[in-house]
Amino acid sequence: MGSLNNNYALDFKLYYNTIDNALSSTNITRRGVNPATEEVLPLVPVSTREDVDDAVRAGQDAFPSWRELSWDKRAEYLVRFADAIEANLGAIAELLGRETGKPVEAAARELEFALSHIRVTAKLRIPEQVLQDNEECSATLRYTPLGVGVGIIPWNFPVLLGLGKLDAALLSGNTFIWKPSPFSPYTALKLGELAARIFPRGVVQVLSGDDDLGPRLTSHPGIAKVSFTGSTATGKKVMQSCAATLKRFTLELGGNDAAIVCDDADLAKVVPKVGTFAFLNSGQVCMDIKRLYVHAAIYDDFMQQLVTFAKGLRTGGGGDSEAFSGPIQNAAQFARVQDLYGEVSRQSLKTAMGGSLRDLDKSLGYFMPLTIIDNPPEDSRVVVEEAFGPILPVLKWTDEKDVIARANNTKMGLGASVWSGDVERAQRIANRLEAGNVWVNNHFHLAPHVPFGGHKWSGIGMDWGVEGLKGWCNPQVMWVTKNSGGRSLL
Ligand code: NAD
């Protein structure tokens, strides 16, 4: 493979699907909106059934020779792709900021994590397991790729979540169709263009579209696997659609993560972390802290310090280099979040900070004020629902058993954390939490080689790490009968 050169320069005015390594437009197009400014963004394709058929055919054609390459060779392609993205880092971060509304620093951090994701994943291998090996025969558990895979991606981390599926799918020998959210298709389409200059034909394809595109992909008989990240409601539809052709699927769904702060927690250390992990990306992270249980003995102090900390978190759009978080990403989500904020007055909830509805006449952008609700009823909507906006309920607890039951009293099971000066005590509580990712004195430890996934209604299967690679494969047992010297093996 040649060295990196300006073949990787991208033009950011026009946006195409990438099908069989060709740029492809559609008769019908649509536009996204920059949620920080409400500026209308360039036209993007709305893929048809024929586009889906063409992409699936190209993916199927590419599969036999791609799977035949060694893992090392496929890894080389991935690293070259990461290098090509890095060569465009500033411009892609800026584009990501425009389509998501994220401050450019936050967009750059997402991209950098995505690049490290590709590079770390490229080094992973699924070990074969010899389950039996005697003089008569051996039995080995190995993993074989599935075929054409699809990644269906939400709008909150369009690049990290897209590339985090692409790298695992490709490394394990599958070809990959990337379907970004209609609310954030721009970076994915540009990364598709870049991929077409690096990978063999049909190995990576990107299709943008409207609400019909997801169901067209999940029901297509030529697709072997759907890796979906999005809401629980859509995840159920994906699972149902995959059933018709027995597609493999991974579901990474919604969350309503609880954090439990014990009375011996060091507030100076814990408050900034908890505050950050509650309001990161304006509450639009699947694993943001969404229910915060603070021990009654430290509740008042904690609340005071949390409010002081949160007041220092600046909200702003792409151009604001000092901003910590941006707006709600799209108009539909903005309307949902506004409705939830309406509960503050409807239910007479006590706010420690924020809580008012946005005055839409005053300024542009889907911004909502960071809001902390002071000890709301356990069954109020702000506690029970996944807000996916910057509104945090803080609740009091005194009894360990009781707080564990309250933390587990949800259909969701994505993440949960316990904060205490006594790690053993925290671990005792953490052991009883029903979630796919449980942290002691953190809520955001994430790494490309560590699998991530949800329990209960937060998902099925895991992405990332070797576990994630296995999700892109069929397990296969290879029995080899050795020279038996004419003896019957039965
Ligand atoms: P969403 O479910 O509305 O959409 C996700 C994706 O599914 C989009 O690409 C959308 O176009 C597509 N889609 C919509 N209907 C479909 C259908 N019937 N069949 C197939 N695809 C379809 O979710 P969203 O609003 O984009 O994202 C927010 C949600 O995602 C939140 O609930 C959040 O917790 C969750 N999320 C989970 C994780 C995780 O790792 N568990 C990560 C990020 C976001």
Looking at this protein, list some descriptive labels.
oxidoreductase, LUC3-like, globular, Aldehyde Dehydrogenase, Chain A, domain 2, 15 helices, 490 residues, 22 strands, Aldehyde Dehydrogenase, Chain A, domain 1, single chain, aldehyde dehydrogenase (NAD+) activity, six-stranded mixed sheet, seven-stranded mixed sheet, aldehyde dehydrogenase (NAD(+)), binds nicotinamide-adenine-dinucleotide, Ald_DH_C
Amino- and carboxy-terminal Cα gap: 51 Å
Which parts are unreliable, with pLDDT below 50 for 5 consecutive residues or more? 1-5
Bound molecule kinds, no repeats: nicotinamide-adenine-dinucleotide
Shape: globular
The CATH class of the largest domain turns out to be: Alpha Beta
Whole-angstrom Rg: 24 Å
Mean pLDDT reading: 95
How many domains make up the coordinates? 2
Biggest sheet, spatial arrangement of strands: 14-15-16-13-12-18-19
Q: Tell me what portion of residues adopts beta-strand conformation.
A: 15-25%
Largest sheet: 7 strands, mixed
Question: In CATH terms, what is the fold-level topology of the largest domain?
Answer: Aldehyde Dehydrogenase, Chain A, domain 1
Q: What is the helical fraction, as a range of percent?
A: 25-40%
Number of helices: 15
Alpha-beta content class: alpha/beta
CATH architecture descriptor of the largest domain: 3-Layer(aba) Sandwich
The total beta strand count reads 22
Assigned CATH superfamily of the largest domain = Aldehyde Dehydrogenase, Chain A, domain 1
